[in-house]
Fold this sequence. Notes:
By secondary structure, the chain is an alpha/beta fold. It folds into 2 domains: 2-177, Rossmann fold, CATH 3.40.50; 181-303, N-(1-d-carboxylethyl)-l-norvaline Dehydrogenase, domain 2 (Orthogonal Bundle), CATH 1.10.1040. It is 45% helix and 22% strand. The protein contains 12 helices and 10 strands. The chain has helices at residues 10-21, 32-41, 81-88, 107-115, 157-168, 179-200, 204-208, 211-230, 239-250, 259-266, 276-285, 291-300; strands at residues 2-6, 25-29, 43-47, 52-54, 58-60, 69-74, 92-100, 120-133, 136-149, 172-175. Strands 1, 2, 3, 4, 5, 6, 7, 8, 9 and 10 form a 10-stranded mixed beta sheet that branches. α6 runs parallel beside α10 (259-266) and α11 (276-285) packs across α12 (291-300). The longest helix has 22 residues, at 179-200. The chain is globular and about 50 Å long. 49% of the residues are buried.
Amino acid sequence: MRIAIMGSGGMGGFLGIKLAASGHDVTFIARGKHLAAIKSQGIKLLSRAGDMHIHPATACENTKDAGMFDLILFCVKLYDTEQAARACLPMIGDRTFILTLQNGVESVDIISTVVGPGKTVGGSIYVSANILSPGVIKHSGGIDTIRFAEVNNQPSARTEILERIFNDAGLMGIREENLQKMLWTKFVLLCANAGLGSLTDSGAAAMCSDPDTREILLGAMWEVYHVAQAMGIILPPNTVDDVLSLILSAGHHKDLIASQCLDLRSGNRLELEWVQGVLHRLGRKYNVPTPINSTAYVALKRFRDGL
């Protein structure tokens, strides 16, 4: 397949390297020093599971020069969603589809307002990765799983393709039966982990090893769960227990460190408004108390535009 990686940072770079190594024609959409390094030296992945190096690697900044693609993996930060969706338009043909793997619960709707309905599949990814230096991606944890669903929740040729290409790349691709349930199940982990993890500079497993922090983390997860319930998104009653089991099974060697925590460490702009901010506003709208997540939102506001 011809695959474009829209946003070749930690997550996009990780996936692009894996897919290129398994034989796909991958183009990395990037900019600045990262783009220059990929063009001159290829793109490297450093991982406990084994290092990889794609060289030469195809990369560009201007999507008008990239041509048409079968699949676009949409991995940009949430604050760049609309601009990046517009940049995808020159790469979209009649059969092109987008898989968004962004954080949060609003990505599919935002992208669809730009590219049109029926073009986007929603996804969630359980991987921790970041740019270590230009052209170098560090894979620091997670369970290397990508889940996805069509907006209509039905199986399709597109979800079959995604299952195949991710599994062939040594990852786990899983079609889910309900998009909103999938997104909010991930959001239970993501929102709590990104908020408290950023405040404590910790991954999920590290927080669970401290009884005090673990209690607060679980409380933050339950807040997300109750907001979903109030919105009519029915999550299984064991959702929080299952998320805790996932964290503990990953352990410290595959600790789920939120990208927001990594961005805060690097002084980068945060996705705060689209994660804790969304939950804070929805909690108020549906009259669901969210004191832990709202406190994280308020405490991190001063860092939202970077240092």
